[in-house]
Amino acid sequence: MTTTVSGTTKVSIEFRHDFADETPATPKMTRVPPGMTLFNAANWIGLPIDSTCGAKGTCGKCKVRILRGHNGATPADRKVFTEAELADGWRLSCRSEAHSDVVCEVPRLMGNPKAALMGFDRHVILNANVHKILLTLTPPTLEDQRSDYSRIRDALSQEGYEAEASLTLLRQLPGILRKSRWQITAVVVGQELVGVEAGDTTGRAYGLAFDIGTTTVVGMLLDLNSGASVAVRSTLNGQAIYGADVISRISYTMLNEDGLSRLNGVIVQTLNRLIADLLHEGQVAAHEVYEVVTAGNATMQHLFLGADPEAIGLEPFIPVVEDMVQVRAREVGLAILPQAQVHLLPYLGAYVGADLVAGLLATGLAQNEGVRLLVDVGTNGEIILGSAARTVATAAPAGPAFEGAQIQDGMRASDGAIEAVIITHDAIELQVIGGGSPIGLCGSGLLDAVAQLRLSGLMLPSGRFVQAEEAGQFVAPELARRIITDDEGRRAFVLAWAEESGGGKSIVLTQRDVRELQFAKGSIAGGIDVVMQELGVEADDLVEVYLAGSFGSYINPQSARIIGLVPPVPVERIKAVGNAAGEGAKIALLSFREREVARSLPEIVEYHELSGRGDFNDSFLSVLQFPELETLG
Amino acid sequence: MTTTVSGTTKVSIEFRHDFADETPATPKMTRVPPGMTLFNAANWIGLPIDSTCGAKGTCGKCKVRILRGHNGATPADRKVFTEAELADGWRLSCRSEAHSDVVCEVPRLMGNPKAALMGFDRHVILNANVHKILLTLTPPTLEDQRSDYSRIRDALSQEGYEAEASLTLLRQLPGILRKSRWQITAVVVGQELVGVEAGDTTGRAYGLAFDIGTTTVVGMLLDLNSGASVAVRSTLNGQAIYGADVISRISYTMLNEDGLSRLNGVIVQTLNRLIADLLHEGQVAAHEVYEVVTAGNATMQHLFLGADPEAIGLEPFIPVVEDMVQVRAREVGLAILPQAQVHLLPYLGAYVGADLVAGLLATGLAQNEGVRLLVDVGTNGEIILGSAARTVATAAPAGPAFEGAQIQDGMRASDGAIEAVIITHDAIELQVIGGGSPIGLCGSGLLDAVAQLRLSGLMLPSGRFVQAEEAGQFVAPELARRIITDDEGRRAFVLAWAEESGGGKSIVLTQRDVRELQFAKGSIAGGIDVVMQELGVEADDLVEVYLAGSFGSYINPQSARIIGLVPPVPVERIKAVGNAAGEGAKIALLSFREREVARSLPEIVEYHELSGRGDFNDSFLSVLQFPELETLG
């Protein structure tokens, strides 16, 4: 059955297990864009097929048998199967693209693949793209004058690997081969021979996963053999002094002649300092790091690549490249093995970046049954909604309120910021970063304050504060008197009196601050509304709501629900997945299967641009108000 | 019919033209190693199939219909053909590998392909690997937010090109696209997008072909659109001061810490000076050169790559790499477009280098009917014998005699060297380089002198001079008295008396010099004998004998025949093809089809190592003597 979804005709694939010694398992079905390999399609729905070469068509392990549907044999098939087997439908699933509906039989996975729980309840098979192969070469003789390179390639081919070497490596071959007396370890990454090491070094293979955030950069050093985390570090993005958010970074590149190269240099320096610390902590040498995966928003990834992000900042918001980019460590200046491969996860749109793609890997949102919502709250709200059946994404411009900007006593989430608020019948409790006296209000504190004011009845659904006198009728006087009115009749709520604050003056939440928050949350809630309508989904249908991004970790799910930032679902379904980008980068590093999923996500997830959409404006207006409390159930 | 040749099972391919409007042409047959594409196999036997994408499976023009034999449809086929066409046997010949015997029908070539006579009577279809495609892109909008890179790739795909960009190019995209107002010329080389230029620059596309000789480097700047030669220059290889031949260059790298990097730097400098001159003469900008092909012996190509040639110099003579190597201009330091592709032609063995592979392209030896012999005479004699049916190659160590070394009055072929000799009944005529008085004897003069002495009867088949008195009986006295005897009874022949010479002392050919020449020519003739026995070929079977290499141009074919350097064939069948390497590099630059031929030559030509072979020693001893004159016919 061929299904048309939003203009893309998908092909249906049915996978059957059929073994004599067990009850036939239920067939697994999926629908994929034409051209996807059976290997990737199977993996997509959690049906891993054997492979040691990284699905490059060389190891011959990913056999399947086509029962129905047309699939001609490829040259790779001919190397592996006999004519009789080909006639019987056997194919290498990593080379077999689905162009029409297919039914195929998948043999049982050989052995017990190493797997681990990663991200958020994801069962991931460890299968790094880095392979170290110990080779004992026969020394050359007059009867066997193959070149050094051919000798290695032939030996690799016997082990099921086909790989090409760079000039840098070719230059090193004669020395290493002869010094090692022809006993070497070849390092194959994907289809590249990135290194040849003397002796047996198969026990040591490392990779790095980075979440390049606008504010914070997180780096993980991973053992590619075991999947174990060797060291984890985070640091401030050195670009922070050139602007707090992506727009100010882009502006910096536009206003300064050498702005792009400076911001590029700074992020590379930040990464290299992290790398030095991680390697030191893990007792790993720089040349033992063979692969890197990065996640980050489009602007951060552009600046890391040294690609001009200017067009991302201006309508119609165009990146230089949106696909997964692969470069060498040397090309981008990372202080690891120069030939190491660096993979930048792809984007879904200029403002739904690789951090969200990583989030999809970490949550499995686009691969699972059941509709889930992923929201990254920041100056832009990035929104992804869907399931294996269909997934849509959008970005909503939220403005800086969630970062504490344009809020009278707002501040960034650093020491002295009120990050959480609880209002009881007669008191207000503040949680302050660093534990000292409060000096301002950061985004999560703002959200909490408004939510608590709504719960206490001190704020109306319209966002207006009640009058102090009216408040006195249902809360204690010490709370009611915190509602103050200035000379022009504008109300505000005093979170901390001057004597309670660290700054010597009171910290207040103004009516205008509340409006700012309303616009910010209205934009995101409006975006969510648009994609829910697009999928025909109601709040009750949502299995889970993930709050992602650095801000996502700090939001009180209850508060998010009270102010209507997220749909009204039971609060236990709302989960903070703040480290989703880093987790996703790690998954893509440790599993080439999952990296292939990431590669195909931009093709599979539908991106909807909100700018200029009438229904977004309607939704925005309809959700500006805060929900009535009774609607929250 | 599957034929086994020397351990390789070849598959047979029959190509049929079958058009209603003309008498069916005779089918063309060939046998190729399994896995060769039908496209390359057809080209191999002079049957070009249409293609605009460079046989990358994207333009869809290289259609053939399989009449007999098994060939599954590939993903590329599925993009081009309907199910009915696939069932009817239609395939893209560039994607269709022959793994068993095949009969296929080839449609007539569309249009009239541009072709030229190149090399030595080769009819070559001009089809450079560089494609410039004018693209008018639709500017991005909110409804079309594709990235800059996707926008270009989609437009290229519509024109039948699939190409990947490097990071360097990605970094340039946003600026060029917006400055050019979305009107650009894409430069696709093979499967790489190497450049994007503002506006329409399709008229300008250039390439460079180099013959990197041990002594002389020849460079050609070619117009890739027309195939015209824009400029040709040659210069001394700057490495000459570090040693005259490959062995002394290799020694230099072994004896000096920075020897390899120095010799690498020097040859790159030599090439860049040639490039500067060629570009200046042709009024071409450096960034308009998109591709380079180089030919040269293995040592010269290793030094150009910066790869250690040490193992080439020592038994068992192992290069770092023997395949065609592709690098970027930037990686090897050539002063042209940094992303330009540089292709180093492959080798047949450590001592049968890319200069000989180029020679095969220039002569068509391995592609034509009729057995031909190609000999490059130097310190090593490189020998290739064969036809389209089978070709074998070997290298014979000749020593430095042909270069005038270890010859008493020997010198290199420079001003003052006797380069040709004619002995009549009563006189000797010397041809001197530069036209002045002679000061020594170079290789071709040595060959001539010995051949003329043999013809005149002054030298016996054993190589011994006759006695002066005996000589007086059949030549004039002034000639006979040139045979002199020293105190120890050793004879010599005076080519120039002291008063005739430019050096103030007589120039003589000693008995020992003759022995040196005998060893040198014996080695080459012995090698020729081995490969002729290998193929079961007699001198009469040879259609042509090519003398290649810089020395080859200067050898008098008659003399080569008289001393037995080459088999006894009619002298008009002996041709000097001194510039074969440069011509071959040029052909490989102007025709991607011929470059594919070059790529497959190492797989097809059988290389025989002579070191330690008993039959070579036997042959060597049997040809040490000079032939009896009557055997020359």
End-to-end Cα distance of chain A, whole Å, is: 41 Å
| Helix fraction bin of chain A | 25-40%
Q: For the residues shown, what is the average pLDDT of chain A?
A: 91
Number of domains of chain A: 5
Biggest interface pair, counts: A-B, 55 and 55 residues
Which labels suit this protein?
homodimer, alpha/beta, Ubiquitin-like (UB roll), Nucleotidyltransferase, domain 5, 6-stranded mixed sheet, 25% strand
Structural description of this entry:
Two copies of one chain form a homodimer. By secondary structure, the first copy, chain A, is of the alpha/beta class. The first copy, chain A, has five domains: 3-111, Ubiquitin-like (UB roll) (Roll); 130-198, Ubiquitin-like (UB roll) (Roll), CATH 3.10.20.880; 206-344, Domain of unknown function (DUF4445) (Nucleotidyltransferase, domain 5), CATH 3.30.420; 364-399 and 517-632, Nucleotidyltransferase, domain 5; 402-511, no CATH class. Helices cover 30% and strands 25% of the residues of chain A. In chain A, strands 1, 2, 3, 4, 5 and 6 form a six-stranded mixed beta sheet that branches. In chain A, strand 13 and strand 14 form a beta hairpin. In chain A, helix 15 (511-535) packs across helix 20 (614-622). Chain A is globular. Residues 1-7 of chain A have low confidence and may be disordered. Chains A and B meet through helix 2, helix 4 and helix 5 of A and helix 2, helix 4 and helix 5 of B.
